[in-house]
Amino acid sequence: MRDKARIKPFLERLEKVWNKVPDWRFGQLMCNVLNSMDKDPFYSEDDEMIKYFEDYFKNR
Q: H/E element holding 15?
């Protein structure tokens, strides 16, 4: 079983990313980032996923 303590830090990092595009709805955020991935996000671990989100918004 995965550690539940990983969720809050993940969400805090996601909040920082989302604040870069506050006009986007949650669905827009997910679709825009996930559709830009070169692999299936279903198989990504949490640390890989949040890194991808942060990298997506580095230059925005």
A: helix 7-18
